[in-house]
Write a structure and sequence with these properties.
alpha/beta; Rossmann fold; 2 domains; six-stranded parallel beta sheet; 10 helices; EC 1.5.1.5
Length: 283
């Protein structure tokens, strides 16, 4: 078993983003973060992204709304940022309070500023292999596979989770790389049997140690995209690492690459560039 660490890859991506940010003439690239409420984990994530921005030469702007904010108020704040020519990318920190229509808020982000890859436009671009911004965590997963020499072509991949910003786009990106993809979820019958057949397992279900170690096929590649209290992923790590050929740690696996892609895509948006090639359309 070898660890599929994302730390070194994230550093490479950020170094390149910083170089391209410095090469710009005029203002720095700008990422705007929007947070509704004061969830401690979300506040921490936003601060972490702001620190990464500063270290990469990207300006950051933060819009904080109270937990009582309505969908209309949140959409209005995002729309204002979308119309601001000094803002290149917009990140809506999720999850939002339950009373807010999260999809309506996401769709207020203009496609050209959707550097987190959460809109329907971005999902369609990923599904059809068209230019656009990828969802950062799924994009980070593909970059991790590339960096560790894992070619999904012809491999059986099982994605556990079907969220529109993680599980579904991860499946689309793996399918575009010619993997045979099965998407599993909370109502999948015989989940363990599906996982036992997988050459690549992507766990994105949001439940601590939900994927048991003895489900993993010997030699499989395991990507744990979960993060739960106590630095615990969605995979039973100690047991799974005994069977997997490659496995991501939590933390230090997918997370650093997710943030790096967010900033890379912000610089790309500022420069009017397309996303560096991740999707490869197949037949």
């Amino acid at each position: 078993m070898a660890l599929m660490s994302g730390t070194a890859l994230a550093r490479e991506i950020l170094d390149d983003a910083a170089r391209r940010a410095r090469a710009r003439t005029g203002r720095k690239p700008c990422l705007a973060t929007v947070l509704a409420g004061d969830d401690p984990a979300s506040v921490t994530y936003v601060r972490m992204k702001q620190k990464r921005c500063a270290a990469t030469g990207i300006d950051s702007r933060h819009v904080a709304l109270p937990a009582s904010a309505t969908t209309r108020e949140l959409v209005a704040a995002i729309t204002e940022l979308g119309e601001d020519e000094a803002v290149d990318g917009i990140l809506l920190q999720h999850p939002v309070p339950r009373h807010i229509d999260e999809r309506a808020a996401f769709e207020a982000i203009p496609p050209g500023k959707d550097v987190d890859g959460v809109t329907m436009h971005s999902f369609a671009a990923m599904a059809f292999g068209l230019p656009g911004f990828v969802s950062c965590t799924p994009g980070g997963i593909v970059r991790l596979l590339d960096a560790h020499g894992v070619d999904p072509a012809g491999q059986r991949a099982v994605v556990i989770g079907r969220s529109p910003i993680l599980g579904k786009p991860a499946a689309m990106l793996l399918l575009a790389r010619d993997a045979t993809v099965t998407v599993c979820h909370s109502r999948t019958a015989n989940l363990a049997e599906h996982v036992r057949q997988a050459d690549i397992v992507v766990a994105a279900v949001g439940k601590p140690e939900f994927v048991r170690g003895d489900w993993i096929k010997p030699g499989a590649v395991v990507v744990d995209a979960g993060y739960n209290p106590g630095n615990v992923g969605d995979v039973e790590f100690d047991q799974a690492r005994q069977r997997a050929s490659l496995i991501t740690p939590v933390p230090g696996g997918v997370g650093p690459v997710t943030i790096a892609l967010l900033l890379e895509q912000t610089v790309a948006a500022a420069n009017g560039e397309g996303q560096p090639e991740i999707v490869q359309s197949g037949r």
